[in-house]
Specification:
Rossmann fold; 13 helices; single chain; 15 strands; Quinone Oxidoreductase, Chain A, domain 1; 33% helix; 7-stranded mixed beta sheet; alpha/beta
Length: 357
């Protein structure tokens, strides 16, 4: 079978390896669709484990099951989580599934024709796809589950104003979910095409961050441009909604966007880091100001089993439409092109690899 072995974003090698045979409590699945996640192209995050087979947003068909497996059978359509928490430790009991210290098994990467599903993931991390949920749609389950968790941590609910900064695939899912919960949604980005998608996805207000930056630069010296752009965005949010945002969700790692986020969050609100800058970048949090305003700074990077169940239901019921975010469907042989599309970020939103084509 073929796998795509990732060394770095510019070196991805198609390799032939033997097709694995499932043991008594394992199963073999055929990968039908696997999305390229924004985290897949973050080299500082992935390089320590390279070379590796990436891909964790996948839909698959069961091909063969071990002798002791009764839960699934060949032909079943499934989505498989990248990992599963133990469910019994302190962190799991406190709904902090993403930081469970007892995760020992991870799903083999989905940029492959077949993958062997280990026992733990078969029993607790595999979900049948409802009728009407295609393999391509299933690639959104895990990323939407992460979005569900982020908004849950931030306390997003109807009537709040939510500012989503960065309108890539994750940002657009944030827009769609916040809107479905009855929020007033503002979206910002530097890409006009993505702003148009944000508007189509339900954003009440869209802000072109490039124009804000240009306006600031025209008025003041270059060293003050970022500060002025920050003021522009905050002013736009207030003008359009009546006040600052209750929740600001950062789906971009740009430092200027982070500076904007500090100025756009209202008293009693929250800033959520859904994307983060590289570890070499230094951030300054205006802690003294936030201290007197009860502003929370949160991080959210993964999901738990309840979030996956919720995301699968949102997609199955069409509460959240996802197919309109798919821009590219590529065979495994073109995975290098897929990575470049995601890195470039101008033409693509959701890039899906189909290993069987």
């Amino acid at each position: 079978m073929r796998i795509a072995l990732w060394y770095n974003n510019r070196d991805i090698r198609l390799t032939e390896v033997p097709t694995p045979k499932p043991g008594p409590k394992e199963m073999l699945v055929k990968v039908m669709s696997c999305g390229i996640c924004g985290s897949d192209v973050v080299e500082w995050y992935r390089l320590p484990r390279a070379p590796l087979v990436q891909g964790h947003e996948l839909g698959a068909e069961v091909v063969e099951v071990g002798d002791d497996v009764t839960k699934y059978r060949p032909g079943d359509r499934v989505m498989i989580a990248p990992k599963v928490p133990c469910g019994t430790c302190h962190y799991c009991r406190e709904d902090h599934h993403p930081v469970c210290p007892n995760v020992k098994v991870r799903l083999p990467g989905g940029y492959a024709e077949f993958i062997l599903v280990p026992q733990e993931l078969l029993e607790s991390g595999t979900y049948r796809l409802p009728d009407g949920v295609s393999y391509d749609m299933s690639t959104f389950v895990e990323p939407l589950a992460c979005v569900v968790r982020a908004q849950k941590l931030a306390g997003v609910k109807g009537g709040l104003t939510v500012l989503v900064m960065g309108c890539g695939m994750s940002g657009l899912l944030q827009v769609k979910l916040a809107k479905s919960q009855g929020c007033l949604v503002v979206a910002s980005d530097v890409n006009p095409a993505r702003l148009a998608l944000a508007k189509q996805s339900g954003a009440d207000v869209v802000v072109d961050a490039t124009k804000d930056a240009a306006n600031g630069a025209a008025r003041d010296a270059a060293r003050d441009a970022a500060q002025d752009a920050t003021a522009d965005l905050a002013a736009r949010v207030i003008t359009e909604t009546g006040r600052k945002a209750d929740v600001v969700i950062l789906c971009t790692s740009a430092l200027r966007a982070i500076d904007q986020a500090w100025r756009c969050v209202d008293q009693g609100g929250a800033v959520v880091f859904f994307a983060v800058p590289g570890p070499e970048k230094q951030l300054t949090i205006p802690l003294n100001e936030f201290w007197t305003q009860e502003i929370r700074v949160l991080t959210s990077y993964y999901c738990g089993p309840p979030d996956i169940v919720a995301a699968l239901k949102l997609i199955a019921t069409r509460t959240i439409e996802v197919e309109d975010l798919i821009t590219h469907r590529l065979p495994l042989a073109e995975i290098a092109r897929g990575f470049q599309l995601v890195l470039d970020a101008r033409e693509s939103v959701k890039v899906i690899i189909r290993p069987q084509e």
